[in-house]
Amino acid sequence: MMNRLKLILVIPILAVIFAGVWMIVSELSAPELSENISSEPNTGGMSPPPPPPPPAPAPVPKNDFPMSAPSEPMSDPVVTLEPPIVVMPEVVVEPSVEANLDPEETSSIVQLYYATNRNLVPEDQRDEDDQTSQYGNFDGELRYGVAEVSIPRDHEMGELESPNWFIEKIFGFDEEKHVVLQWIAEDGKEAVMAGVRDDLSQLDDRAILAFVHGFNTSFDKAARRTGQLKYDLGFEGPTFFFSWPSKALGSAYTHDSQVAEITYTDMTAFLRELTAQDAERVIVIAHSMGTRILSQGLADLIAEDPDAAAKITTVVLAAPDIDAKVFKERLAPKFRTLSRPVTLYASDNDTALRMSETVNGLIRIGDASNGLNPVEGIDLIDASNVKSDFFGHTYFGDNKSILSDMKNLFELNEPVDIRKGLERVETPLGPYWRITGN
Description:
This protein has 438 residues and is of the alpha/beta class. It has helices at 2-37, 165-171, 189-201, 219-233, 253-262, 264-275, 290-304, 306-309, 324-335, 351-360, 395-398, 400-411, and strands spanning 85-87, 107-120, 135-152, 180-187, 207-212, 239-243, 281-287, 312-318, 342-346, 378-382, 422-425, 432-435. It has a single domain (85-97, 106-435), classed as Alpha/Beta hydrolase fold, catalytic domain (Rossmann fold, 3-Layer(aba) Sandwich). The chain is built from twelve helices and twelve strands.
């Protein structure tokens, strides 16, 4: 009887050990297996150099860039019938820009700037192996700095290559396989902006790009995502990420929501700085809860300094976690004063926003599961067809069709009616557009 009991206890332990070993072996052997299985070259990014190296590919053309308050659920009618459609040509997804890597190099480097209002953590509470541990999860002074992210040689467009949690805990990141934050260095605002102006002076078309992350996102992940976006979009101008004090925990929605509101004033200050750097274009992308911060910060800038706000030429709200009525009645009217319409991506497959609706009890403007409700002056784009993560929430950076649409918006300065890969859908409330690719 005792032996049988011991056997029952040992079997689960052995199973856990076996699973861990299997995960390690799978991670370490994945590149070799994929090389053996696939006979086609990887066109989504840069392939590892096989010995002997193949002939040099034709050069890729260089890209030039001209570059809450409580509310009641919406009472406006929701469109659910299938309306007439005007189809534009199918989108042509362009691969990410290939760096001129030496055959010995395993990754390319993306230079970034950052702004953050995360509090500074006392030195004796920091992890000496993690530079980002200097920044905490509460609000502090607005600080600026520079960062460097590496993109693996075999990167595929739309992939934020990362280890699974088990491998990360044991081995960390591998720059040959993963998008990696290499280092950060805090610097004064004046020094950072001087660097931005110097970068702009070397460009024919002076443009700044900034990204505001969403709920459940660490400083590290915000940097890595921004590096991936800059690389995949082929953006040549100075690029920022704004990291607010998200706790980077799925269970910390309330915390993140509260610190997001505290961040509005710092966002206004950050946007004002961007518009003061003699750029021809200022492009800002925000995701999820980060769209609340950007939207309110921008609305305040429009009210306080309309001349500065007018220099923000392109605004993208991806999967916005904003109360629909607040957006329609309070924010959208202010956005109509901008030089170009705000672009808003919504999806009916966004599980994360449906969970947000459950928590908040109110419809989110980025959730199309209740039908799409066009808003005057907003380029509303239905992204329901595209593939994304498990929750259908990160399509803005994961999906080639979305990245291609943003690339056409940023690089070619194309209005929504003529961009490839979009179809116009007419409704009694006005038009919206639908991504045709997946």
